[in-house]
Write a structure and sequence with these properties.
Blueprint (H helix, E strand, L loop, with lengths): L11 E2 L13 E3 L5 E6 L9 E4 L7 E3 L10 E4 L9 E14 L9 E2 L16 E8 L9 E15 L1
Antiparallel strand pairs: 1-7, 2-3, 3-7, 4-5, 4-6, 7-10, 8-9, 9-10
Length: 160
């Protein structure tokens, strides 16, 4: 994967300008080997949210939750906030920061939650497993937090 000229992981565009921007589905690699894909947000996305996106990169691009998850859909993490209707990059490979719920354990299976963009290790019934996504440091016991994580082309797996 080559580095794209003009690529910045924190870039957010309110519209596509022909010949001057990227297209949904484009991929880029930064100098650290982290891989990103370009998407159009279908709802507001907060910084470090775990985001689900489908094969169009535009129809369903939203913070993952138990209400919008579908087995096989891809996951990424937003390095910056992206407003609904805007375009931006979500990370799909490499070390990153991930929003998790309080007391989430390190190096265990994570799953979707009722809190959009936030994952957990609680294995709640009807949640969906987040395959290829892990945190490397346990979260504290108070409130949701952003933790160091690893992405390896994550996607939604089986329902718990």
């Amino acid at each position: 994967m080559a580095v794209l000229i003009g690529f910045k992981a924190d870039q957010v565009d309110t519209a596509l300008t022909s010949g001057k921007t990227f297209s949904p589905g484009d991929r880029a690699e930064d100098y650290n080997g982290k891989l990103y894909t370009y998407v159009k947000a279908s709802s507001a996305i907060a910084q470090y949210d775990v985001v689900t996106y489908d094969e169009t990169y535009t129809t369903t691009v939203a913070p993952v939750s138990t209400s919008n998850d579908a087995r096989g859909d891809k996951l990424g993490v937003a390095p910056v906030a992206i407003a609904s209707g805007s375009y931006g990059w979500v990370q799909i490979y490499g070390p990153c920061t991930i929003n998790v719920k309080a007391s989430c354990a390190a190096n265990v299976q994570l799953n979707t939650t009722g809190t959009g963009g936030t994952v957990d290790d609680d294995a709640t019934s009807s949640s969906i497993v987040c395959e290829g996504l892990f945190i490397t440091t346990a979260a504290g016991s108070s409130g949701a937090t952003a933790k160091d994580g690893i992405l390896n082309y994550p996607q939604l797996g089986a329902t718990l």
